[in-house]
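hey m, so remember when u said the tokens were messed up on ur end? i reran from scratch. heres the input so u can diff it against urs
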Amino acid sequence: MNSLLSITKKKILFIIMLTLCFQNINAQDSNSDFWNHVRFGGGLGLNFGDGFFSATVAPSGIYQFNKDFAFGLGLNATFNNQKNAYKSTILGGSLIGLFNPIPSIQLSSEFEQLNVNRRYNTNLNLSNDNYWIPALYFGAGYRSGNVTFGIRYDVLYDDEKSIYADPWAPFVRFYF
């Protein structure tokens, strides 16, 4: 457990240092304004079916280096409920890279680290789960204005621990 906390502290320190680095680079350039290049947005998810409900909120912020490249940070909060089976809460963060080879096409890479907490409601002697799982997505989408519709693939997909049924996942992403 201590090594997990140590790794988490190192990741948080890395993200803080990266943010300060971006601000420092911008402060040295008197011709640009840092906040004029920052865009906020993210994604929302809602899934429901026969006794199943899932909702996700994933805010993020990116720094738009130019019309082609952006890099940023994101948060993820998901709640799942399978009636009479389990409930799960998933919290985490991500690093996001975006590239637009042409205005209507967006390629993306995203490293995500999630903490999964599952609580089972069955009498099957299943123990509750609490673990961390990484994901590395590569995606492509069609961009129109502030919205991108696309699909992404998790190259670190784990059949047993992943929160998704498949390494392929559609997405809707927006930034303002």
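this time it looks ok to me. The first helix runs from residue 2 to 28. if urs says something different then somethings off w ur setup not the seq
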